[in-house]
Amino acid sequence: MFRFLVIGPLVFLLLGCTNIEKSGTATSANNNDSTVSTKAPRQSQQKGNKQHTNDAKKPLTMEQLKKKVKDNILEVTKYESSYALVKSENSYQFFDLMTGTSKSLPVNVDNIKSYQIKDKDHIRFLADGTNRLNSKRVLPYYFDCIRVTTDGPFARHDVKTYFPLNNALEFGGKPDEVVSDIRFTMNGLQILFTPQKSKEAMFYADYTTIPVTTTSYNEMTNTFVVEFKQTQLSKEINKVNVRPNDFIKRINTKTEGENVQISIELKSAAEVYSGNVGHLKNKNNFPFLTFTFAQKSFKEVFGGAVAELSK
């Protein structure tokens, strides 16, 4: 019995060891089975991730763009395959079609005639000179929207804008003014306007600006003609003496009905012109018009841009 008592536990232990080994083998088999069964879902998951990645790389569709833009979309201009400029009723936005993100373009209240996407970080707009706030009308001009980094905001930079001499324009907006002074600059001239007597209320209403103005060019005589509608010529301007100027030979002023004409006889150096409406920095806030003439090859033109527009 003593042996039985000794052997018994040994037998019991051996049997127990046998059971533990089988159990371990079963677990390992189960692990192998588990590994095999897990690989298939992982491969499927990898395929799913790969498919999801491919889907994510697809650019936004027009329907997706419409959901992202609150206003009614008027125009979409794609750049390469990854970007698009979206013009809506109240804004201009530049979209990254791959990420779905967009940046607002600081067009402000200007009415836009055209635009050009130079690259994904530089867009040039041509404003027609009018705006959505009032009837004020200046000369058309370029401005750039530029960003330093792809994720950064666009900043606005006005561009000096020139026009060929034969590019006739119309701008300005108020009647009943007086050409009260003409002064010459190094590369052009300035014309100052004041209100006619008893017309001050209209002159100062809402804002001050120059009269309706048109430009034309006589190629035969190389004369640039500026006409101001419903405007008077001050009696103090009988004859304007031209100081030495690289672009202007002489000017003549005259009244044609209700209008005033200033004929500017140019030198051969004058090939393009620009115009700008400014105001005196005093309580009167009188408006003045500055014309600048230049050669196309002049370095200032390279810093700006030459636009060719119809009237």
The appropriate CATH architecture of the largest domain is Sandwich
Please outline the major beta sheet: 7 strands, mixed
Q: What percentage of the residues does DSSP assign to strands (E)?
A: 35-45%
Number of domains: 2
Radius of gyration in whole Å, from Cα?
38 Å
Please give the number of β-strands: 20
Shape label = elongated
How helical, in percent, are the residues? 10-25%
Describe this structure in words.
There is one protein chain. With about 300 residues, the protein is an alpha+beta fold. The strands form 4 sheets. It has a 7-stranded mixed sheet with strand order 15-11-12-19-18-9-20. The chain has a 5-stranded antiparallel sheet with strand order 10-13-14-17-16, with no helix packed on it. The longest helix is centred in the first third of the chain and has 55 residues.
Strand and helix map with partners:
Blueprint: H1 2-56, H2 62-68, E1 73-79, E2 83-88, E3 92-96, E4 102-104, E5 110-119, E6 122-131, E7 141-146, E8 155-159, E9 161-164, E10 170-171, E11 177-184, E12 188-195, H3 200-204, E13 213-218, E14 223-228, E15 231-233, E16 248-256, E17 259-266, E18 272-279, E19 287-294, H4 299-302, E20 305-306
Parallel strand pairs: 9-20, 11-15
Antiparallel strand pairs: 1-2, 2-3, 3-4, 5-6, 6-7, 7-8, 9-18, 10-13, 11-12, 12-19, 13-14, 14-17, 16-17, 18-19
